[in-house]
Amino acid sequence: MQSAQSHDVFTVSQLNQRARQLLEISFNSVKVEGEISNLSRPASGHWYFTLKDAGAQVRCAMFRSRTAQLRFQPKEGDQIVVRGKVSLYENRGDYQLIVDAMKPAGEGALQQAFIQLKQKLGAEGLFAQEAKKPIPSHPSRVAVITSPTGAAVHDILTVLKRRFPAIEVDIYPVQVQGAEAAGQIVQAIYQANNDQRADVIIVGRGGGSMEDLWCFNDEQLARTIFQCPMPIISAVGHEVDFTIADFVADQRAATPSAAAELISPDKNHYLQAFENIEQKLLNSIQQRIQQHQWRLQTASKGLQHPGDKLLQMNQRLDMLDIRLQQAQKQTLLGYKQKLLILNQKLQGQNPKEKLEHAALAVQRLQQRLMQSTHHLLEKKSEQLKLNMQLLHAVSPLNTLGRGYAILQSPEGGVIQDSKQVSAGDKLTARLNKGQLQLEVIDNKS
User: Fold this and answer.
1) What is the 3-state secondary structure (H, E, C) of the chain?
2) Do domains 2-106 and 137-265 have the same CATH topology?
3) I need a surface site. Which of 52, 87, 199, 279 has the fewest CB within 10 A?
4) CATH for 2-106?
């Protein structure tokens, strides 16, 4: 009896573990609707909150791998529907709901996400009218970012061909539906802006469900449209469809065809205008021709005969010739007078006389130089003789003449002290006349 009872006793950990297993098996996937309270978002990325109604509440946990997939941001007081499994937090014995999915109650998750993103970007000023760039009324080239096989590109090309075929079109093919569509559209906008070929960009596609058009509600795409230096027209879906791209673009067109209508003038208006201008030009030319004809007729009545005109010109030429000859004579006379004056001045400045004066001055200077040189040489000669006498008086050679000798070592050094030599050294004695080779026999200091 005691052995059987011992097997029915659980530890707390075992009890909580068995309870968790039973709950997860029995409530593996349930949907629960309630109001969010005590919402906590720690740095780990996991969410913890309480789901409650009027009579009860349950703890909930939603891990980061699931929160990252939500398309809206829940907040305190939101009424939501969650899907998950019932479990037990064994460490505390708390009953909780592990949430796998979440959506707003009564309103679709996409619509809620759309509203939240619209409010966020609107508060940042991305929809402000003053930030929108003007759309050129007569673009020469347009960049179309859409699916190359969809109805949108066909509608745009058809409208442009009908209204104004001169507008050139660059098509940037992208996906307009699915997970990769928003990123491709962003890259196409960057590429069109870097190419700097078009005057305006059209971004769009044909109609569809909210899920089909969802890539045009992407936040990165909205910011790229806002920051693009080139004006952008959003033409997404039908007239009743609205996306975030429509609000942030510089201009919204109800449909792709409407976008093409917006940027293309009607060629018929231009043709009519050209016809009006042509008619005005023809009328103006006709009036100018008539005016010139009348002026020609008037001028022809007062036109002088060419022969008379030539006689007058000949007479005027003769008068000018006479005046030219007189002017030449006066000029030559003036030059002669100036030449005479210059000749007189030149005679007074005859270089021959100046050269003669200069030669005499040079001759006098040469004589003075020779005299000074001779006097200086005599003075220096006397000084040299005196110096030689003084030098001879102190010369050692003069001492040799009195019977003295100079002893020198083999190296040529003068012996002044007996300590400089030793017995057996060879010395040279320099006399007044000649030299003697000596050997030291003894050295007595």
Assistant:
1) CHHHHHHCCCCHHHHHHHHHHHHHHHCCCEEEEEEEEEEECCCCCCEEEEEECCCCEEEEEECHHHHCCCCCCCCCCCEEEEEEEEEEECCCCEEEEEEEEEEECCCCHHHHHHHHHHHHHHHCCCCCHHHCCCCCCCCCEEEEEECCCCHHHHHHHHHHHHHCCCCEEEEEECCCCCCCHHHHHHHHHHHHHHHCCCCEEEEEECCCCCCCCHHHHCHHHHHHHHHCCCCEEEEECCCCCCCHHHHHCCEECCCHHHHHHHHCCCHHHHHHHHHHHHHHHHHHHHHHHHHHHHHHHHHHHCCCCHHHHHHHHHHHHHHHHHHHHHHHHHHHHHHHHHHHHHHHHHHHCCHHHHHHHHHHHHHHHHHHHHHHHHHHHHHHHHHHHHHHHHHHHCCHHHHHCCCCCEEECCCCCECCCHHHCCCCCEEEEECCCCEEEEECCCCCC
2) no
3) 279
4) 2.40.50.140
User: What does each of the 445 residues of the chain score in pLDDT, given as a tens digit?
Assistant: 344 444 678 888 888 888 888 887 888 889 999 999 999 999 999 999 999 988 899 999 999 999 988 877 888 888 889 999 998 888 887 889 999 998 887 656 677 788 889 999 999 999 999 999 999 988 999 999 999 998 999 999 999 999 999 999 999 999 999 889 999 999 999 999 999 999 999 999 988 877 788 899 999 999 999 999 999 999 998 877 789 999 999 999 999 999 999 999 887 777 777 778 888 888 888 888 888 888 887 777 666 667 777 877 878 888 888 888 888 888 888 888 888 888 777 776 767 777 877 888 888 898 999 998 889 998 888 888 888 888 877 776 677 777 778 888 888 888 888 888 888 888 888 887 888 888 888 877 6
Architecture of domain 137-265: 3-Layer(aba) Sandwich (3.40)
Per-domain residue ranges for the chain?
Answer: 2-106, 137-265, 270-300, 399-439
